[in-house]
Design brief:
Length: about 150
């Protein structure tokens, strides 16, 4: 009688947290194929996709997104930051079932000395493991278009 195999951590992450096309979309120059991501990285990319998607961006899912891209170039105030926070909390609750206990903090760049930046901090726990993680995104409001960077 053989003993049960213990799954490798990366296999467990892939089976529980999923895998899919990398976001933002990239081509693997070595293979010519589409790059993929899995596990925790895939969840973070999903959160970024939700943040960057305006309502109506995806014809097959017309309600998908946070609506934040349409909000960040409006004059910033505490009430605007609150509106962005609420939109993102609602979108993450609706479209990212792998996380729970989500908190969002939106900081205006003027508070940190970079008046053209908006910081979005998302803190969450993974549903399956209760492990905490976070993601800090910087929106450059002076850039052409919606420029989003992950802070590490």
């Amino acid at each position: 009688m053989s003993s049960p195999q213990i799954p490798r951590p990366e296999d467990f992450e892939k089976s529980v947290l999923g895998f899919g096309i990398k976001f933002p979309f990239e081509i693997d120059v070595r293979t010519g194929g589409v790059k993929t991501s899995q596990g925790r990285r895939h969840v973070k990319e999903s959160i970024k996709r939700i943040v960057m998607s305006d309502i109506g961006d995806y014809p097959g899912e017309p309600d998908f997104g946070s609506g934040i891209p349409g909000e960040v170039f409006k004059p910033m105030s505490a009430s605007q930051a609150t509106r962005i926070t609420i939109r993102l909390l609602n979108a993450l609750d609706k479209y990212e079932p792998r996380i729970k206990n989500v908190s969002v903090r939106v900081t205006l760049g003027s508070e940190s000395g970079e008046k053209h930046h908006l910081y979005i901090m998302v803190r969450y726990d993974f549903v399956e493991s209760n492990e905490a993680d976070n993601l800090v995104l910087t929106v450059d409001r002076e850039a052409v278009g919606f420029n989003l960077r992950e802070r590490i």
